[in-house]
UniProtKB/TrEMBL annotation:
Transmembrane segments: none annotated. It comes from the Bacteria. This is NAD-dependent epimerase/dehydratase domain-containing protein. It holds the Pfam family Epimerase. InterPro entries: Epimerase_deHydtase (IPR001509), Lipid_A_modif_metabolic_enz (IPR050177), NAD(P)-bd_dom_sf (IPR036291). The lineage of its organism: Bacteria, Bacillati, Actinomycetota, Actinomycetes, Kitasatosporales. Residues 11-205 form the NAD-dependent epimerase/dehydratase domain. Gene3D superfamilies: NAD(P)-binding Rossmann-like Domain (3.40.50.720).
């Protein structure tokens, strides 16, 4: 097993041998040939830059890096399996979206920028590779938003803000996948398929269930600031100013309209069953983050007090006497 990255890991990789290299450079082809690699797992498709780079460096790593890697794989006769990390962002988020996206549901409006557009382009190049190398088993994993104690994603950065900007009048449905489940499904996709399963094709990867954005805010104890929809561009710019890297218009649309995907193929064809539900994933992320400005216990107590007040008979204005 060989791990390749342009940045050295901060910890040991077990039995894997680490090679520091940029997949966007010709050296990657020599590595595939030298180690006679048969399975390639491409994870460097992300919305988070390394080393303080900006949006342009992210796009270069996502799109140009993938192109170079696919070109190297195409020329490597030893390669027999390719696994590519993608995202449910390829479906976009729009007001007339279906309630649930399947892997074959077309997007109502293709993403116009940011990481979502990168993912669409990457998948297009992967399909081209699959046509040119039909002998290679290709698996594309469309991950829902990844969360967990160690998550470092634009959405994790958003949820880490002391106050959460939201879109006035909208409470979107969200899905998450736990970082531990991501590792487990990658093992399944990279190995030989178990009996009765197939690990080539495109699969949505998400935990069971959905949560509302308002539920997330309450669980975190974070106050929200509703913003009028026409001001979404300003909100995105403001969030980028405070360090939320890829809070593009597509991310704003997600927090407006939400997105839910079907995981039937993940279970019945790929044979993967996540250990964490969407709600459990977010709860684990929230525990690691700590209490916000409004601790959840205080919010729950306040809600209970309000409910008791509403249910209790009012004595402030006694009924008028019949006399």
């Amino acid at each position: 097993m060989v791990a390749v990255d342009s940045v050295a890991p901060a910890h040991q990789l077990g039995d894997a041998e680490f090679v520091q290299a940029d997949i966007g450079r010709p050296a990657i082809g020599r590595l595939l040939a030298e180690y006679r690699v048969d399975t390639v797992v491409h994870l460097d498709v992300s919305g988070t830059p390394l080393g303080g780079g900006g949006r342009s460096s992210v796009k270069e790593a996502n799109v140009i890096g993938t192109l170079q890697l696919l070109g190297a794989c195409q020329k490597a006769p030893s390669v027999r399996r390719l696994v590519v990390k993608s995202s449910t962002n390829v479906y976009g988020s729009a007001s007339r979206d279906p309630a649930v996206f399947t892997e074959t549901t077309p997007a109502k409006a293709l993403p116009s920028g940011g990481f979502a557009k990168d993912a669409v382009e990457v998948e297009g190049y992967v399909r081209g590779f699959a046509r040119r190398r039909p002998d290679v088993a290709v698996c594309v994993l469309r991950f829902a938003n990844i969360l967990g104690p160690g998550a470092d994603t634009p959405l994790a950065e958003y949820f880490s803000l002391p106050v959460l900007p939201t879109v006035l009048g909208y409470d979107p449905r969200l899905q998450f996948v736990h970082e531990e489940d991501c590792l487990d499904v990658l093992r399944i996709a990279a190995g030989e398929p178990a009996r009765g399963t197939l690990n080539s094709g495109t699969f949505n990867i998400a935990g069971d269930g959905v949560v509302l954005l308002s539920q997330c805010a309450r669980r975190l104890g974070s106050p929200t600031v509703p913003v009028l929809l026409p001001a979404v561009t300003w909100v995105g710019a403001a969030l980028r100013t405070v360090g939320v890297t890829d809070f593009s218009r597509e991310q704003i649309r997600l927090l407006t309209h939400g997105r839910v995907v079907s995981t039937v193929q993940m279970r019945e064809t790929l044979g993967f069953h996540p250990a964490w539900t969407t709600a459990q994933t977010f709860a684990d992320f929230a525990r690691a983050r700590g209490s916000g400005l409004l601790p959840p216990q205080a919010v729950a107590h306040a809600v209970d007090r309000v409910a008791e007040t509403v249910r209790a008979p009012s004595t402030a204005y006694p009924e008028p006497s019949a006399d």
